[in-house]
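Hello, quick one for you while I still have it in my head. My current little project is about how a certain protein chain folds up. You're getting the sequence in one-letter code plus the fold written as tokens. Would you mind checking whether the tokens look sensible for this chain? Here's the protein in full, and shout if anything looks odd to you:
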Amino acid sequence: MQELRTFGRYLRAKFKRRVKKIPLGLEGFTCPNIDGTVARGGCTFCENESFSPNLARSKRFFLNPQSKENPLLQRQLLQITTQYRKTMAHYQQLGYQAFLAYFQAFTNTYAPLSTLQRLYEHALAQPNCVGLSIGTRSDSVTEELLDYLVELDREWEVWIEYGIQSVFDETLQRINRGHDVASVKEWIEKTKERGLRVCGHLIFGLPGETREMMLASVAKAVEWGCDAIKIHPLYVVKNTALAIDYQKGRFTPISQEEYIQTLVEAIKLLPPQMIIQRVTAGIGDESLLAPAWCANKNSQLKAIRQALKGAGYLY
């Protein structure tokens, strides 16, 4: 039985204690395919203000790399402190002793470098923080930012999480991603050239994709040098363009059986040293439209563990 190199096992081996990510979501962050820089409306699976009256009425301030000022900075710093410490207290009760500040929501490099420096360093100053994990897109990273992260990485554990989703341009166009595959390849490779750690995000079940295409995306993530991988199924939530396609019969979500079979084949493509950060995801509230099996993550994980065990893997 081969024990898979999960993120938890990797972190415990490195830090000799239990380490957990603390997700952060800060006001003022958005994406270049939401604000019109490269597209509007965001990815088809993301909540879209065109379909959500509450979002559409919002007149909030949003950052971009050309912003001359950040009137939200003090609120963002407070949000980091509040979110981090509340979640830390919960995880400490579960036996975790150290933490990574995970900038998760939207595109967390899509702001002036001066703002990013204040936010990242404030997160690193939180109690028991050993590093950062930064979720972003390949069209929202600069050479200057990477050079700065290299400096942070001398003392801290720094990860950049790139949303790859698929390595097929037709799929990226179909989901309104706003960039092409060449952009993803270029910036992952530039990031790796600097010695930074990269986690690649992939989605199985994207519109029009076959199992062969999903596995090809996994193979490219390996080829490009990703240190870790996250995989999850595409699920449909309310207030999205994808929800309209689903309701009109133009999109059929991936079944649990197909997802798990594809996932097992994907695991077989990974080199032993590759870290697996995630093998599924779901949402257990009323915003989920389909597939129903994505509502219960625990049952998903149970079925996935059983399938991987049958293939000779311990997750």
Summary: The radius of gyration is 19 Å. The chain has a mean pLDDT of 95. The domain at 2-314 is CATH 3.20.20 (TIM Barrel). The CA atoms of residues 183 and 239 lie 28 Å apart.
